[in-house]
Amino acid sequence: MPRLVVVSNRVADPRRTAAGGLAVALAEALNQSGGLWFGTSGAVTERDAGGTPGEAALQVQRAGDVTLATVDLSRDDHDAYYLGYSNGVLWPVFHYRLDLADFDAGSIEGYRRVNRMFARKLMPLLRPDDVVWVHDYHLIPLAAELRAMGSTHRIGFFLHIPLPPPLILAAIPQHEWLMRSLFAHDLLGFQAQADVEHFARYVRNEGRAEQRRDDLFHAFGRSVRARAFPIGIDVDEFESLLAGRDAQDTLATMREQYAKRQLLVGVDRLDYSKGLPQRVRAFQRLLERYPENRNSATLIQVASPSREDVHAYADIRRELEGLCGAINGEYGELDWMPVRYIHRTVARRRLPGLYRAARVGLVTPLRDGMNLVAKEFVAAQDPADPGVLVLSRFAGAAERLGEHALLVNPYDTQGTADAIQHALRMPIDERRARHARLLAQIRTHDVHRWQREFLQTLTEDPPA
Fold first, then answer.
1. Residue 60 and residue 41: Cα distance in Å, rounded?
2. Is 335 in the same domain as 219?
3. Does the residue 316 lie in any domain?
4. Residues 223 and 295 both lie in one domain
């Protein structure tokens, strides 16, 4: 079996799968192959502490059968590569928010510099038969840098966030270089078929690529396969969290404190892509148009901190807090607050209990690559008395879950309020039928199938 080498912006210990995220997805494959995980440590060094841009000391440690190799970033590299280009340009553009992109930051050179440094540090660690799996928008040019150093490895890339349509991509200065870098890979994985179609249209129109098969594109002297591999969750692992003491304590507390209420739950990072102000306005419209929900429906909105040193995030926090305060002031009673707003991270081991207590799960981003909260909400429900998933049509999860969730346009305040009312009044037989189909879907397309299908496709002989 070839060794798997995973490269991501941050490295996680695959033994600590309870933390969720990429570690859960990749632990199985890394442990089977005695793999290597390479990326940043998360530490930022100042110039006077040896933090020279484009240079970093390599730190290697063992985590069971897996090798973890990390580098610290200098302050200049972190600000340019991570804050400046990855999250100041690529994140907003890929989420269709050209108005929030800082194209004048001049940070692309830092982005290139760090990817070049990653390649320099990683290349000596690679064995001839390694299979390399690169993750996400921070590292789009890494494979091209490795190829320039002589790498002939199989290299796959997975984009965890959405890929926008060609005209939006074309707004990025040097977008041709960015998309050309993708052709240094052997396989490109996207969350949704819509993302694959955006890629295909871009490379055909802008790169004059030849589409040789449904998933095979040739341009710039190389061929690359591009397919949708929608990421899932580990349903069994999440159900084991639900059975744990923390989740059960949370569930008991929710049922005791909200015995006379119907709970609506949203759990998100505080990010402008998540549609949180639009969601709260829809809840406000629900109380306005359907007054029977007053003194009854309660929205618990968890919005964990995210990049709070960026102006756009500070703005959305102020807007959200103002909306929640206004609703509570207008509709609240001495014994009932319509909105419980929590601006901190809730431990993952408690979330299954919160989801289970909810009659409605609100997953209504303006744009999302997948959104695993939707799948976690489904996994946490009681099949005998399940809650209803209200899901944005602009989440990648909607491609597979949209038929049995209540699909909404988060920009349509009244339409979303109507969908929430439908969810709150849905008969139990319909709730059970919808939940059964959603649960079957997330079990079939779980995180283990995601990584197996991607790696199998990456290592098989490509079509002619």
1. 11
2. no
3. yes
4. no
Q: Name beta bridge partners: 227.
A: 189
Residue 138 resides in a domain: yes
CA distance 339 to 359: 15
Both 251 and 135 in one domain: the answer is: no
**How many angstroms separate the CA atoms of 215 and 227, rounded?**
6
β-partners of residue 266 are 301
Task: Residue 214: give the domain boundaries.
Answer: 4-232+447-459
**Domain membership flag for residue 116:** yes
CATH of the domain at 300: 3.40.50.2000
Is this prediction's pTM over 0.85? yes
Q: Same structural domain for residues 47 and 66?
A: yes
How many whole angstroms separate alpha carbon 21 and alpha carbon 233? 9
Per-residue pLDDT of the chain (464 residues; tens, 9 = 90+): 799 999 999 998 877 755 555 677 788 889 888 899 999 999 999 865 567 888 888 999 999 999 999 999 999 999 999 999 999 999 999 999 999 999 987 799 999 999 999 999 999 999 999 999 999 999 999 999 999 999 999 999 999 999 999 999 999 999 999 999 999 999 999 999 999 999 999 999 998 999 988 899 999 989 999 999 999 999 999 999 999 999 999 999 999 999 999 999 999 999 999 999 999 999 999 999 999 999 999 999 999 998 766 677 888 999 999 999 999 999 999 999 999 999 999 999 999 999 999 999 999 999 999 999 999 999 999 999 999 999 999 999 999 999 999 999 999 999 999 999 999 999 999 999 999 999 999 999 999 999 999 999 999 876 55
Indicate whether 77 and 163 sit together in one domain: yes
Total domain count, the chain: 2
Sort 242 into a burial class: Cβ within 10 Å, 0-12 / 13-18 / 19+. Answer: buried
Catalytic residues: 160, 368
For residue 393, which amino acid is it?
R
Asked if residue 464 is part of any domain, the answer here is no
Look at the block and give the residue holding tokens 């005791």.
256
